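Example 5.3 — Type II secretion system protein H
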Amino acid sequence: MRGIIPQEGFTLVELMVTIAVMAIIALMAAPSMSNLLESKRLDANQRDLINTLSEAKSQAILGRQNVSVNLNSTASNTPTSLNWQTASNNTLELKNIDADGTQSSLTTTTLAFNANGVVANITQDTLLSICNSRINKKKVIILTKLGTLVFKAEETC
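Solution (predicted structure tokens):
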């Protein structure tokens, strides 16, 4: 008489339970992954704005000519005009910062650097904030009259 041969491997029930547990874990991780991607998109958009402003200032000084940065523009770049566009779910807001620290809305969509690297079309420091509506975070940069960029801590929209 033959004995019972032990079986190796998983039963169908064990496999289904394992897949169900993994699916639940994946569903819990999906929102945080989405937020991580949005956060990285916001960071990249901020870096792109910083690079565009820095490039405009450098081109103005090196070329001894006025160079403008058009914000929220999809036009092609030229030697005297650079363009920058917000990424999806991001919005740009510009504000003047008065000497007493109060902020007022700024309607310009163009920043012009003169041959000395000074921002010619603003009269005081300007706050540029990029807000991502999905994750409710915003990156804040202060552009001084002299064309210097100052970074502030991340805030909520």
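Remark. The helical segments are 12-63.
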